[in-house]
Design a protein that fits this description.
Layout (H helix, E strand, L loop, with lengths): L1 H19 L2 H27 L3 E2 L2 E2 H15 L5 H12 L1 H6 L5 H32 L10 H25 L1 H4 L3 H14 L11 H9 L1 H4 L11 H38 L1
Antiparallel strand pairs: 1-2
Length: 266
């Protein structure tokens, strides 16, 4: 209950701050237009040249899949890695460790609250705009879509936070975690279907995206495909498995990090 009250307070403060100072929202909006907008325009042209279908998939399905990826990236959950690294490098982590609240809870709630306002606004406006331009594919009109989509997004939030927290906690030993961050971030970007839609993956690449935590953290991009009705249980199960595994790794690293601070910090 204490952690929930803390999270609610942090999110409320940060959402109000982002609403009052919309600089982050403007920056995120320009970024998603520049990246997602240009990519969708290119794919629209490719699909048009190929008769409207590529590998048995239509453009609206690909458009929504890529839109889900880029909208989720607006959440900026990856930034938790950088924030932890800065805490370690500045020594601020020793002060935060002494507080009566969990450091990990504080950092995770802060990261969710920091990106929540931009995520809600951009996803809402973007959904309306994309629906007007390309419409909703039949797969999104099924009764199964909304509940499974929300479940996948929730699991993706947990999995992304744990993955990037693990990278951040490595700063206690390697100090500068940027090389590890680049590897993990690019793996998620590639296997998540950012620039190449999941439906166009070669079989080997799709297998890696399916069973690895990097691809699983972006399973919301799979929800628009016609195979989702028969695969959602398997894929949410994979997500849940990786959430548990990464949560345990995060906890183990955090406990070791606390001992590391105690030994070196006195």
């Amino acid at each position: 209950m204490k952690a929930i009250r803390l999270g609610n307070k942090i999110i409320t403060i940060l959402v109000k701050d982002r609403a009052y100072y919309p600089g982050r929202l403007m920056m995120d909006t320009f970024a998603i237009i520049a990246r997602c907008g240009i990519l969708l325009t290119l794919y629209w042209y490719v699909f048009r040249l190929d008769g409207g279908t590529v590998n048995g998939v239509t453009f609206p399905i690909v458009a929504w899949s890529m839109f889900f990826y880029f909208t989720f990236s607006v959440f900026r959950l990856r930034d938790i890695s950088r924030m932890i690294m800065q805490d370690v490098q500045s020594g601020n982590v020793e002060v935060l460790f002494s507080k009566p609240v969990s450091y990990l809870s504080y950092r995770m709630w802060w990261q969710v609250g920091s990106g929540l306002y931009s995520f809600v606004v951009i996803s809402t406006v973007g959904t309306i705009v994309l629906a007007l331009i390309v419409g909703f594919p039949a797969t999104m009109l099924r009764a199964l879509f909304i509940p499974t989509f929300l479940l996948v997004v929730l699991l993706s939030i947990f999995l992304s936070l744990f993955l990037y927290t693990i990278v951040g906690l490595l700063s206690f030993w390697i100090e500068d975690n940027k090389p590890v961050f680049w590897v993990v971030d690019k793996a998620i970007m590639i296997l998540g279907g950012s620039y190449l839609p999941v439906a166009l993956f070669p079989s080997l690449m799709y297998g890696i995206a399916l069973w690895s935590p990097f691809g699983a953290s972006q399973f919301m991009t799979h929800t628009v495909y016609s195979t989702w009705a028969g695969e959602w249980l398997l894929k949410t199960g994979i997500q849940f498995f990786w959430v548990v595994v990464t949560a345990l790794i995060t906890l183990l690293l955090f406990l070791k990090a606390r001992k590391h601070v105690s030994v070196n910090g006195g």
